[in-house]
Write a structure and sequence with these properties.
By secondary structure, this protein is α+β, with helices and mostly antiparallel strands. It is built from 22 helices and 23 strands.
């Protein structure tokens, strides 16, 4: 009984370590406004928010121009060499070609030597329906405060530092694309020694490193010196498959070394009107700014030519402590793990035979027991996510269905795995010994880590070290041939054997739930981190369960019930936590008809006034498509036709060369709308298409989305087979519903959904040439 009580104490201590491993990386303080002028102060930086994050400022809008002018004025006020680079960026995004006229701001702080510069990057544009405090206003004001601190310091850095405020990031990284692909900006690309990219999808949480260029030893070496280092090789690998992208991707693909940092907790505010600076956590801003200023000073005094090196593995260990080592070591360490497994297998066989047990039956039973846990927990988690989405369909308007109370569902999902773990391992308690269960668990984990090594060799640390320590902790009692409960010494070994898992896996679980997949079905699979953690803590749990049978399953089931009840109570939308609602207006100039459209198949008390109470979903109109648009079906209802200036397409030149017809057209909005869409008839998709002189990808889809024209026109050049007719639909889109048709103003607890359709007025017209 005494030994079991001590094991319970060690289990509680291990759980405390799990909690602290996450808590210690969270931002917890801010620097006051009256602090040293050479330091970064979130309180000072917050004063710049009204300049850059008061209202939505999509590319091409008047507010976008105001924000740009405000940034330029700020940089000029600190005597930086400031200029605006105007270019055209074009990329294929999903099923369309996205393009924009971008105006990137480059503000240069001169260094003492000539050579390549350090580029600090954040984007200053937003989606149409968000003021963008978290995405990416916080990074912009952090750059402004860094400029102030560096000028106050009075010390000249070795290298030039260029603060690059990119444009049109939200449209598909188009500002960064324009800088790296236009011949006119080759000098900018050649001047980039390193890129430090900062972005965000949230209003709180830790600022973390999510990516680096190849050969990252020297880069990570600099990152280790920041006040709040946080990042893992695994998170960087996951980011490559997770939703969303950042400007760093473009620069990295162009061969420019760099680091990418992001803030990702609290995505319920992402791309919405509640992404406001009044609700942005200044502790997060402090952490971001501290790291940014530290990186600028560190790289600013180093030779950019020395930044190449071998690839390394890196991860946090209990707070700010970061472990780094060459990624090439993972192979030999994995070999050691495999050899250790073989040794532990011999020790296990010897022990089981001494107890006159069927070794292979015990081993197979241990493997199957853990696989059953994975299977049942995965199915139940997947089912719970589907049930939540079915019970609260309005949450599908949020990214990944991650509404404001999503953290309660994340706890419930972890509790599902814990309940399954406790019930499955408690069943048939006397049939399998603890060594059998651990041997089976180690077998599954070793198989998993060997497979992962072929896909992400730099990121297997999160299983490798917990597995090695866990196997070492088991070998000692196994070699003693004891059939009774482990003694105090063995219990301590079990505790330390679980420590790497307690230090590494909770932070990955936090990363996964905080900013990766939301409440999408993919989240069911990220719960494996929790099940792995429980597996490594199995010896401690088993001793506690002998003393208090069924304790884990009981607590987990109560947690599931409590979280689901609390989530239901908090599911009501308010002015602080509003519902996202889809509604936009479209006028067909050829048919003289107008309709209200919702891209989501559900109505609410506001948009059903426009859509009608009996609206039924229909197939999506392909002309309303944009990347990331949901595919559930649209709702439509007739609207009041309004006489607007129409978009136009005019012929500049029409000639025939050989067997090809050469067309030059100009498209523009009659009302200076910020964006145009061109939709080609599938039977007449043009060849060799160029937009404002820039070639369009050869695998052209039938839709082009172009923004930032204002009163200018979009120049279109293309070729067609001789005798072929070109059929085009042109749509101009402005932000906001038409006041003449908006009979009921949107209430405070309802806001537009994210994307480029909602809360817009669209005019469509057809042309044939």
């Amino acid at each position: 009984m005494i030994i079991q009580s001590r094991s319970v104490f060690l289990l509680v201590l291990a759980m405390l370590v799990c909690f602290l491993s996450v808590f210690l990386v969270s931002p917890r303080s801010i620097v006051a406004e009256n602090s040293s002028l050479q330091d970064f102060s979130a309180a000072r930086a917050a004063r710049y928010f009204p300049r850059v994050a008061t209202r939505p400022h999509m590319v091409g809008t008047a507010e976008h121009a105001r924000v740009r002018d405000s940034i330029i004025a700020f940089c000029n006020g600190f005597q930086l060499e400031t200029r605006v680079d105007t270019g055209v960026g074009i990329r294929r995004i999903g099923g369309i070609v996205s393009g924009a006229r971008s105006l990137n701001i480059l503000a240069r702080l001169k260094g003492s030597q000539q050579g390549k510069a350090v580029y600090v990057v954040a984007h200053y544009d937003t989606q149409p329906n968000t003021p963008g405090a978290g995405d990416d206003g916080a990074a912009v004001v952090a750059m402004m405060e860094c400029i102030r601190a560096l000028k106050a310091d009075g010390k000249t850095l070795r290298n030039d530092v260029v603060f690059l405020f990119t444009d049109a990031e939200e449209l598909g990284l188009l500002g960064a694309t324009a800088l790296t692909t236009n011949a006119a900006t080759d000098s900018v690309k050649q001047n980039m020694g390193i890129v430090l990219n900062f972005d965000g999808t949230a209003v709180r949480g830790a600022n973390m490193l999510i990516g680096s260029s190849a050969g990252n030893r020297e880069l990570i070496g600099h990152y280790l010196q920041v006040p709040h280092p946080l990042g893992t090789s695994l998170s960087a690998a996951i980011k490559r498959i997770a939703p969303g992208d950042v400007d760093f991707t473009v620069f990295n693909n162009a061969g420019i070394p760099g680091l990418s940092m992001v803030t990702a907790e609290g995505r319920s505010h992402y791309h919405s009107l509640v992404d406001r600076y009044e609700w942005y956590d200044l502790r997060t801003l402090q952490q971001t700014g501290d790291n940014m200023l530290s990186l600028v000073r560190s790289f600013g005094n180093d030779d950019p030519a020395k930044l190449q090196g071998p690839q390394i593995t890196y991860f946090n260990l209990f707070g700010k402590n970061m472990v780094v080592y060459p990624a090439s070591w993972n192979g030999p360490i994995l070999l050691v793990a495999n050899l250790l497994f073989i040794f532990s297998l011999f020790a296990f066989v010897r022990r089981e035979r001494a107890g006159e047990r069927n070794v292979w039956l015990e081993w197979t039973g241990g493997i199957l027991r853990y696989l059953v846990v994975l299977l049942i927990a995965g199915v139940l988690s997947f089912s719970l996510i589907l049930a939540i989405r079915y019970a609260y369909p309005q949450n599908s308007n949020f990214y990944g269905a991650e509404a404001y109370n999503a953290w309660l569902y994340y706890i419930a999902l972890f509790s599902v795995g814990a309940a399954v773990f406790g019930l499955v391992y408690a069943s048939g308690r006397g049939k399998l010994t603890l060594p059998s269960l651990m041997m089976g668990f180690h077998t599954v984990v070793l198989a998993l880590v060997n497979v992962l090594y072929f896909y992400v060799p730099e990121a297997i640390y999160f299983l490798l070290f917990p597995l090695i320590f866990s196997m070492l902790a088991q070998i000692i009692p196994w070699t003693r041939y004891s059939d009774g409960q482990p003694g105090w010494v063995e219990a301590v070994f079990q505790f330390f054997g679980a420590m790497p898992a307690c230090l590494l896996l909770p932070i990955l679980l936090y990363f996964s739930y905080a900013g990766t997949f939301g409440l999408s079905t993919m989240t069911a699979y990220t719960g494996i981190y929790g099940l792995l953690l429980l597996g490594f803590m199995l010896p401690l749990w088993r001793a506690a369960d002998n003393l208090l049978p069924g304790w884990l399953a009981s607590i987990a089931l109560m947690s599931i019930f409590t979280c689901l009840v609390m989530a239901h109570i908090s599911s009501r939308f308010t002015g602080r936590h509003p519902l996202r609602s889809s509604l936009y207006y479209r006028f067909d100039a050829d048919e003289k008809k107008a309709v209200w459209i919702s891209d989501f198949p559900l109505t609410n008390r506001w948009n059903k006034i426009y859509l009608g109470p009996l609206a039924t979903p229909k197939s999506n109109d392909p002309t309303t498509y944009y990347p990331g648009q949901p595919a559930e079906g649209q709702l439509t209802n007739p609207a009041l036709p309004i006489d607007y200036p129409l978009p136009e397409v005019v012929v500049l030149k029409d000639s025939v060369i050989g067997s090809r017809r050469h067309l030059q057209l100009a498209a523009f909005s009659g009302r200076a709308a910020p964006s145009l869409r061109l939709i080609f008839d599938p039977k007449s998709i043009p060849e060799d298409l160029r937009l404002n002189g820039r070639p369009v990808p050869a695998d052209l889809s039938r839709m082009i989305f172009f923004a930032g024209l204002g009163t200018d026109s979009l120049k279109i050049e293309c070729r067609l087979p001789y005798g072929k007719t070109l059929q085009i639909q042109v749509i101009d889109c402005s932000v906001g519903l038409p006041p003449e048709a908006e009979t009921v103003i949107r209430p405070d607890d309802i806001i537009p959904a994210a994307g480029y359709n909602d809360n817009t007025t669209q005019i469509i017209r057809r042309y044939q040439f």
